[in-house]
Design brief:
mainly beta, five-stranded mixed sheet, 5 strands
Length: about 60
């Protein structure tokens, strides 16, 4: 499936937000995901499906001091 991921077109093998986060090797606890300009609640990552051409933005939370 082709997605626009953080501004770049990517081909991925994922059908849900949870599968995408896992496929990218990310920790779901440390990211926020937006699908087609709408924030996806973490509790729905496994239920929100992806479609060809979706626009996905993923932001990583980084701690520091």
């Amino acid at each position: 499936m082709r997605l626009h991921l953080n501004g770049e077109e990517k081909v991925v093998e994922a059908d849900t937000v949870a599968a995408l986060v896992t496929a990218l090797g990310l920790d779901a606890r440390k990211v926020a995901v937006e699908r087609n300009l709408e924030i996806v609640p973490k509790s729905l990552y496994g239920q929100v499906g992806l479609a060809d051409g979706d626009r996905i933005e993923i932001v990583h939370f980084i701690g520091g001091g």
